[in-house]
Write a structure and sequence with these properties.
Chain A is mainly α. Chain A is built from 13 helices and two strands. In chain A, helix 5 packs antiparallel against helix 10, helix 7 crosses helix 8 and helix 11 crosses helix 12. In chain B, strand 9 and strand 10 form a beta hairpin. In chain B, helix 11 crosses helix 12. The radius of gyration of chain B is 23 Å and the shape is globular. The chains are: A mainly alpha (about 350), B alpha/beta (about 500). Bound molecules: adenosine-5'-triphosphate and magnesium ion. Magnesium ion binds next to helix 1 of chain B.
C-alpha cells in the first residue's frame, strides 16, 4: 500500500472551498488535544473561543471592531502576495501610520477643526506608504529582499514608537505612562454602530475589499500583477514592468496598513500608546492566506480571525487559557490551511504496490 | 517472444476531452516505434500514461507480460522506462549535474564525468556545471536525453525530441538511438517530421482524435501517404514562390555587441542585419549560439542603451518591451509555457497578455467581450483544438498552444514580427498553414524575422538568410542563391573544422 500525491490536471474548485473549512476543523481537533494536555477543559475553552463572541451584542461588536484593521491590512497585503511581493512588515507600516496620524492631535490637543480627522487619516496612509516605499526602493535599486527589509523596518518603527512615547510625545499629565495625550473629539472617528466602539473604519475596510476585488478582477493593472506573480518571465515577455509591480504592491500594502494604524489611534485607543502594535500586521498575513488571497475570501477569514481574537480574550478569563494557547490556535489554523492547499493542485491516490 | 510493453484498451479523459480512447499498442524489444498524429491527437497523453505521470481511466498496461499500475515516474524508471518530455522538466535554478543528480544516483563528480563521456559518445555535449536557465531549448533537451540514458532504460520514450534539434544533431541522435536499439532497447518516438520517421522507425501507430486509426511500416510509405493517414485528408498545397519588391527598413542592427554577464550564456559581437517591409529574413543556426540573447535584445526583454538597434525608424536601445510593442512590434518566443503563455491562466487571459492594445482594455478596465471574441477568433482561425477560450493554457497540447501563440501575435498585424521556432511541435498540416500565413503577412508588407533551426522551413519561407554561430552572424545569403550545404558550413563555423564546433 502506498500513498502518493498526483498533480491534478487543473485546480480543484471543491478543494479550494473545502480547504479552509477542513483546516478549521483540524485546528479545533488539534487544540482540543492541546487544551486537554494543558489540563484545561477543552469544551469550556472552545466555547469561549468560538461561541462566546456571538452570544452578546457587545462581544459581537468587538469582533467587528477587530475586523476593521485586519481586513483593511489583509486586502492590501494580498495584492502584493499575488504578485509575489512579500510585504511582511505591515506591522511597522501600521505603527508609522499611527504615529503620523497622532502628530496633529499631539501638537494641537485642543484642536477642533473639521479638517483634523481627514488630515490625520491622510497622514497615516501616506506615512504607511512611505515606510513601505523604502522597501520598494531598496528592492528595485539594490535588489534587496523585501521580506527582510519590511521586517526590519518594523523593528525600527517599534523603536520610534517607544522613543516618542517615552520622550517627546509623553503626556505630561499621564503619570509617566508611555502614552500620548488623549485626543480631542475632532480627532476621533465617528461611531458607526451606536452603543458600541465600532467606528467607520469598518466601512473603509469594506470599501477596500470592493476596490481590491475590482483591481484584481477587472483592472488591467491587477492582471499585470497576477501575471508577474504566476509567471515572471511571461510578464517580462509581455512588457509588464517588474519594478512597477513591486512599487504598486508595497505602496498599496503600506497605504492600507498606515490607514489602519491611523484608525486605531483615532478609534478605540483615542491616543497613541504602545498597544497600537498588537500584531494586526502579522495576523493580517494569516488572514490574507486563509482567505485564499481572494478579496471576498479575505472578508470571511478576517471575520473568523477576529472571532478567534475576541474568543481568545474571553478564554483567558473564563477558561483560564494562556494567551500563547490562542496564538497556537491561530498558528494551527494556518498550518492546516497551508497543508490543505496541497489538495487544490494535487490529489491523493492509494495504490496497492504491484510487483512487476 | 513476449512484448516489452503492451497496452490494452487504455483510455484517458480530461474533463470534456477524451484524450485517449481504447488504445491498443504493442512495443517489442529493440523496436523503434513511432507515434504519429495531429496536434491534440493524444500522443503525449498516451506517453504520460506509460510513464506513470497520469493514470488511465480504463484499460491495462502490461510490462513484460505483467500488469502494472504505475502511480509515478519513479516507479516507471524503476521498471526501466525513461522519458524525455515535450515540455522539459528541469529546474532552472540548478546546474545540469544537480538536475541530473535529482534522478540519477551517484556522486556529483562521477556524474559530471559520465555526462561528459556520454555527451562525447553520443554527440550530446553540454557543460555539466552550466545553470539550466542559461541553456537554450536545444541544450536543455540534450540534458534531458542524457539524464534518461544514464539510467540505462529498456524503453525510452521521446516526445518530439527532434523539434528543436538542428539536422546535424538529429543525425547523431539517430545514431545514438540505433546504437541503443542494437542493445535491445525499445524506443517510442513522437515526431511531426515524417521523413525522420521513415528513416528511423520500423513501426508507426497513428492516432487521430484519441483513437488508433492505423498501424503501418513507415519505411513502406511515402511521407505524403503518412501525412494523409495522419490528418485524414490530403496535405495543403505547397507555398507559391513569389518575389516582390521590398519597402523601407523596419529593423536594423548595426554592429550590435552584447557582453553576457552569465558565464554560460553567449556574448554577441558585431551583429549587423536589416529586415525590410515585405520580406522574411531567417536566422539559421544551432540553438545555444546566441539566438536567445539576440531575440531578447530585439524584443526588449534585455535593454542595452545605444543606437545599435533601430526599429521602425527609432533607436530603441533603451526602450522597453511595452513601447516596442506599441510601435508595432510582436514576438513569439521559443518557450511557450511560462514565457509565451501563463500556464495557469485561461486562453482568454493569455490573449490579453500581449493583445491588450487591440481594444481589449479601456480606461484600464479589461473588456471581457472583446477579450473573448479575440480569443475565439484566434482559436478558430488558427485551428487551435481546445474546448474554448476558458481552457487553461497549460492544458493545451504542445502544438495547439504554439498555434495559439502564433495566432495571437499574428492577429495583431504587427509591422515587425520576430518569431522563434514558428512551427515548433506543430503538425505538418498546421505548420504549412502557419508558413502560408507568414508569407501572406510578408506579401501584405510586414517585416518578419524568423529564428529557426529547421533549415527546410527557412528555405521555404525566407527571402534571405543569416547564420548565427557562437555569437557571430554570417553575411546575408539570399535564399535563391545559396544551398543547404553552404548554410551548413556556416552553422558549424565557416572555415573551421567541424570538430572545433559545438
Ligand atoms: N492536463 C490536461 N488538462 C486538460 N486537457 C488536456 C490536458 N492534457 C491534454 N489535454 C487535452 O488532451 C488532448 C490530447 O493532448 P496531447 O497533449 O496528448 O496531444 P498531442 O497528441 O501530444 O499533441 P501535440 O502534437 O500538439 O503535442 C488535447 O485536446 C488536450 O487539450
Ligand atoms: Mg504532445
Amino acid at each position: 500500500m502506498k500513498i502518493s500525491f498526483i498533480r491534478r490536471e487543473r485546480a480543484s474548485r471543491t478543494a479550494m472551498l473545502v480547504a479552509p473549512v477542513a483546516a478549521f476543523a483540524c485546528a479545533i481537533v488539534a487544540s482540543v488535544v492541546l487544551f486537554t494536555l494543558l489540563g484545561k477543559a477543552p469544551g469550556q475553552a472552545l466555547y469561549s473561543l468560538l461561541l462566546e463572541p456571538f452570544l452578546t451584542w457587545y462581544n459581537f461588536s468587538e469582533v467587528l471592531l477587530k475586523m476593521a484593521p485586519l481586513l483593511l491590512i489583509a486586502q492590501g497585503l494580498a495584492i502584493g502576495f499575488r504578485a509575489n511581493v512579500f510585504n511582511i512588515g505591515a506591522e511597522g507600516q501600521l505603527i508609522i501610520g499611527a504615529i503620523a496620524a497622532s502628530a496633529l492631535p499631539v501638537w494641537y490637543p485642543q484642536g477642533d477643526s473639521a479638517f483634523m480627522l481627514p488630515a490625520m487619516l491622510l497622514m497615516g496612509a501616506g506615512a504607511g506608504m512611505a515606510w513601505a516605499g523604502i522597501a520598494a526602493l531598496f528592492r528595485t535599486r539594490f535588489n534587496a529582499n523585501e521580506i527582510l527589509v519590511t521586517l526590519m523596518l518594523s523593528l525600527i518603527a517599534a523603536q520610534v514608537l517607544n522613543y516618542l512615547l517615552l520622550g517627546p510625545w509623553k503626556d505630561p499629565h499621564g503619570f509617566n505612562f508611555p502614552q500620548s495625550v488623549m485626543f480631542p473629539d475632532a480627532a476621533l472617528l465617528p461611531i458607526l454602530l451606536p452603543g458600541t466602539r465600532v467606528n467607520i473604519s469598518l466601512l473603509f475596510a469594506l470599501i477596500a475589499s470592493v476596490l481590491a476585488s475590482i483591481l484584481m478582477r477587472h483592472r488591467f493593472a491587477g492582471f499585470q500583477l497576477l501575471v508577474g506573480g504566476l509567471a515572471p518571465r511571461a510578464a517580462r515577455y509581455a512588457g509588464f514592468s517588474e519594478a512597477r509591480a513591486i512599487w504598486v504592491s508595497l505602496l498599496l500594502g503600506g497605504l492600507a496598513a498606515g490607514l489602519a494604524g491611523a484608525a486605531e489611534v483615532a478609534g478605540p485607543l483615542g491616543q497613541l500608546q504602545r498597544s497600537v502594535s498588537t500584531g494586526y500586521g502579522y495576523s493580517a498575513i494569516i488572514v490574507a492566506y486563509l482567505g485564499g488571497l481572494n478579496p471576498w475570501g479575505i472578508v470571511i477569514s478576517a471575520f473568523v480571525m477576529s472571532v478567534i481574537y475576541i474568543g481568545g480574550d474571553n478564554a483567558m478569563v473564563s477558561a483560564d487559557l494562556p494567551i500563547a494557547a490562542v496564538w497556537v490556535f491561530q498558528g494551527l489554523l494556518l498550518c492546516f490551511y497551508l497543508a490543505g492547499l496541497t489538495f487544490i493542485r494535487h490529489r491523493v491516490s492509494f495504490i496497492r504496490k504491484a510487483k512487476p | 517472444m513476449t512484448a516489452l510493453l503492451s497496452l490494452q484498451s487504455v483510455s484517458k479523459r480530461y474533463g470534456a476531452v477524451q484524450a485517449n480512447a481504447g488504445i491498443n499498442l504493442v512495443v517489442d524489444p529493440g523496436s523503434i516505434h513511432a507515434i504519429l498524429g495531429e496536434n491534440g491527437a493524444g500522443k503525449s497523453t498516451l506517453m504520460k500514461l506509460i510513464y506513470g505521470v497520469e493514470s488511465p481511466d480504463a484499460g491495462v498496461i502490461l510490462w513484460k507480460g505483467q500488469p502494472v499500475n504505475l502511480s509515478s515516474p519513479a516507479e516507471a524508471r524503476a521498471l526501466g522506462i525513461g522519458m524525455v518530455f515535450q515540455h522539459f522538466s528541469l529546474f532552472e535554478t540548478l546546474t545540469v549535474v544537480q538536475n541530473i543528480a535529482l534522478i540519477v544516483p551517484g556522486r556529483k563528480t562521477d556524474l559530471a564525468r559520465r555526462i561528459r563521456t556520454l555527451g562525447d559518445e553520443f554527440g550530446l555535449n553540454v557543460d555539466p556545471e552550466a545553470m539550466v536557465h542559461a541553456l537554450s531549448v536545444g541544450e536543455r533537451q540534450r540534458v534531458e536525453i542524457i539524464r534518461c540514458l544514464l539510467l540505462n532504460p529498456e524503453l525510452l520514450i521521446l516526445d518530439e525530441p527532434t523539434s528543436v534539434l538542428p539536422p546535424q544533431s538529429v543525425a547523431r541522435l539517430f545514431e545514438t538511438l540505433r546504437a541503443l536499439q542494437a542493445r535491445g532497447v525499445a524506443i517510442l518516438f513522437i515526431s511531426h517530421k515524417l521523413e525522420e520517421i521513415k528513416e528511423l522507425c520500423d513501426t508507426a501507430t497513428i492516432l487521430r482524435g484519441g483513437q488508433v486509426t492505423g498501424r503501418v511500416d513507415p519505411r513502406g510509405h511515402s511521407a505524403k501517404d503518412l501525412a494523409t493517414l495522419m490528418i485524414g485528408r490530403a496535405m495543403p498545397p505547397p507555398l507559391p514562390a513569389t518575389v516582390q519588391a521590398v519597402g523601407e527598413v523596419r529593423l536594423e542592427l548595426s554592429g550590435l555587441d552584447f557582453v553576457n554577464d552569465d558565464p554560460f550564456g553567449v556574448s554577441l559581437s558585431d551583429i549587423s542585419l536589416r529586415v525590410h517591409s515585405g520580406e522574411i529574413v531567417g536566422i539559421a543556426g544551432i540553438s545555444g549560439n546566441g539566438q536567445q540573447e539576440l531575440a531578447a535584445l530585439i524584443s526588449g526583454e534585455v535593454v542595452q542603451p545605444g543606437d545599435m538597434i533601430r526599429m521602425l525608424g527609432h533607436a530603441v536601445g533603451a526602450v522597453g518591451v511595452a513601447q516596442r510593442r506599441k510601435m508595432g512590434f510582436a514576438f513569439v518566443p521559443e518557450e511557450r509555457l511560462g514565457r509565451g503563455a501563463v500556464p495557469e491562466m485561461s486562453l482568454a487571459d493569455n490573449a490579453l497578455l500581449t493583445a491588450h492594445g487591440a481594444g481589449l482594455v479601456q480606461n484600464g478596465f479589461i473588456r471581457r467581450t472583446p477579450e473573448r471574441a479575440y480569443t475565439a477568433a484566434c482559436i478558430a482561425r488558427y485551428d487551435v483544438r481546445t474546448p474554448g477560450p476558458e481552457a487553461e493554457a497549460g492544458a493545451l497540447s504542445g502544438g495547439n498552444l504554439q498555434k495559439f501563440i502564433m495566432g495571437r501575435e499574428m492577429m495583431l498585424e504587427p509591422k515587425l514580427l520576430l518569431v522563434s521556432q514558428p512551427t515548433w511541435g506543430v503538425d505538418i498540416g498546421a505548420a504549412t498553414d502557419i508558413r502560408q500565413r507568414l508569407v501572406a503577412m510578408r506579401n501584405a508588407g510586414a517585416a518578419i524575422l524568423v529564428i529557426s533551426e529547421e533549415l527546410e522551413e527557412l528555405f521555404q519561407i525566407c527571402d534571405r538568410l543569416h547564420v548565427l554561430h557562437k555569437g557571430h552572424l554570417s553575411p546575408c545569403l539570399p535564399t535563391h542563391a545559396t544551398t543547404v550545404e553552404e548554410v551548413g558550413t556556416y552553422m558549424i563555423g565557416a572555415g573551421k573544422s567541424p570538430e572545433v564546433a559545438a
